[in-house]
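Whiteboard transcription, Tuesday session. T.W. wrote the C-alpha cells on the left side:
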C-alpha cells in the first residue's frame, strides 16, 4: 500500500447543492436556471486539495449508507483513500439558493445521520489503525447532532497515542474542546476566533494581539484567516502575516479549507514558515477563482508564491478594521 501522508476526518459531511434562481420569492414556484451538486464537507475539501498537490491522503468520518455514490465518485476522481465509517441514513445536503438578480444566497442546511456510540468507537479504532507517527490528522467541520464536543478530545487522544499530529478547523464548542485537548495546529477565521475568546476582534491590532496570546499560551501552530485581508501564521519559529492574493473573486467558499491544506503541505515538506504561509495563500487563491477543486502546476504555484507579501508580526503592522468581504456564495 502506498505511503499514506495525511488523514482527514469529516464527522458531518454534506452534499453541497447550489441552485440558481432569478428572483427568490417565498411561496412562489421557481424554475431553476442552473444547479450543481458536489461532495462536500471541510475534511473532504482539505483532502482534495492535498491530493491535487500530489499527497497521499485517506478520508474518514461518518458517511450515510443510503446515498454514498456522489462521494465514492469524488474519492475516485481525486485519488482519496476511503476509510469512512458507514452509518444508517443519508448524508445531509446543504442547499444554497443563489438569487441571480440580487446576488444574495439563502442557505438551508438539512440534518445528517446520527452515528451510534459503537460507530463513534469504530471511527476511533479506524484512525488509530491507519495513523502513523509524524503524520498529520485533520479534524474539520461541525459535529453531527448526537456527537458531543468531548468526542473531539477522544479523537485527539487517539491521534496523539499513534504519534500523529492534529490539525483542527472547527467552531463553537468543538473548537474550544479541541484547543483544550492540545490540538497541534488550529485554523480559525477571525469570526471563529472572536467567538472562542468572547472578544471583539474587529480591529486588526486586536486580532493580532489575541492570536499572539493564544499561540503563546495554548496553540503551537495557529493560522488565523482574515478573508480578503490575508492571514496570520504563528508557528514555534515565526509570527507572520501573509497578504491576500489580489484577484477577482468568484467564490470564497472553501478558501479557508484550502488554506489549511496548503499550510499542512508546506509543514510536511519542511518549508520555511514564510514559504508555508505563501503556499497556504496560493492554495486559497486557487479556490477563489474556481467553483471546482483546482490547483495549478508547481511552476505556477512557485510564481504565485513570489507574489504573496509576507510581513513579520513583531513589526508594527498597519492597523485597520478586519472586514469580511461579503460574497454571494459564502455560507
Ligand atoms: N475576498 C478575498 N479576497 C482575496 N483573498 C481572499 C478573500 N477571501 C479569502 N481570501 C483568501 O483565503 C484565505 C482564507 O479565507 P477565509 O478567511 O475567508 O477562510 P474561512 O472563513 O475559513 O473560509 P471557509 O471556512 O469558507 O473555507 C484568506 O486568508 C485569504 O488569503
Ligand atoms: Mg473556515
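and on the right, the sequence the group agreed on:
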Amino acid at each position: 500500500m502506498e505511503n499514506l501522508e495525511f488523514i482527514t476526518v469529516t464527522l458531518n459531511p454534506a452534499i453541497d447543492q447550489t441552485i440558481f434562481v432569478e428572483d427568490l420569492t417565498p411561496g412562489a414556484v421557481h424554475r431553476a436556471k442552473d444547479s450543481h451538486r458536489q461532495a462536500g464537507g471541510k475534511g473532504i475539501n482539505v483532502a482534495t486539495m492535498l491530493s491535487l498537490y500530489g499527497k497521499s491522503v485517506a478520508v474518514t468520518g461518518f458517511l450515510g449508507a443510503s446515498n454514498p455514490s456522489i462521494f465514492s465518485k469524488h474519492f475516485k476522481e481525486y485519488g482519496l483513500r476511503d476509510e469512512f465509517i458507514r452509518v444508517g441514513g443519508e448524508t445531509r445536503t446543504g442547499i444554497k439558493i443563489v438569487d441571480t438578480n440580487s446576488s444574495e444566497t439563502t442557505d438551508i442546511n438539512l440534518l445528517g445521520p446520527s452515528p451510534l456510540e459503537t460507530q463513534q468507537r469504530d471511527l476511533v479504532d479506524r484512525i488509530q489503525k491507519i495513523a502513523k507517527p509524524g503524520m498529520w490528522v485533520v479534524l474539520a467541520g461541525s459535529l453531527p447532532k448526537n456527537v458531543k464536543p468531548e468526542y473531539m478530545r477522544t479523537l485527539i487522544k487517539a491521534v496523539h497515542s499513534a504519534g500523529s499530529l492534529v490539525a483542527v478547523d472547527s467552531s463553537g464548542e468543538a473548537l474550544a474542546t479541541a484547543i483544550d485537548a492540545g490540538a497541534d495546529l488550529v485554523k480559525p477565521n477571525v469570526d471563529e476566533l472572536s467567538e472562542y475568546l468572547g472578544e471583539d476582534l474587529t480591529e486588526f491590532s486586536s486580532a493580532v494581539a489575541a492570536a499572539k496570546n493564544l499561540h503563546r499560551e495554548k496553540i503551537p501552530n495557529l493560522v488565523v484567516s482574515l478573508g480578503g485581508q490575508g492571514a496570520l501564521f504563528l508557528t514555534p519559529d515565526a509570527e507572520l502575516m501573509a497578504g491576500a492574493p489580489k484577484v477577482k473573486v468568484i467564490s470564497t467558499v472553501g478558501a479557508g479549507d484550502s488554506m489549511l491544506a496548503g499550510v499542512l503541505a508546506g509543514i510536511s515538506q519542511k518549508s520555511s514558515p514564510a514559504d508555508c504561509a505563501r503556499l497556504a495563500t496560493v492554495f486559497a487563491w486557487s479556490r477563489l477563482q474556481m467553483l471546482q477543486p483546482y490547483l495549478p502546476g508547481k511552476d505556477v504555484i512557485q510564481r504565485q508564491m513570489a507574489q504573496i507579501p509576507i510581513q513579520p508580526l513583531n513589526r508594527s503592522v498597519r492597523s485597520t478594521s478586519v472586514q469580511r468581504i461579503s460574497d454571494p456564495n459564502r455560507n
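Someone added at the bottom: The radius of gyration is 19 Å.
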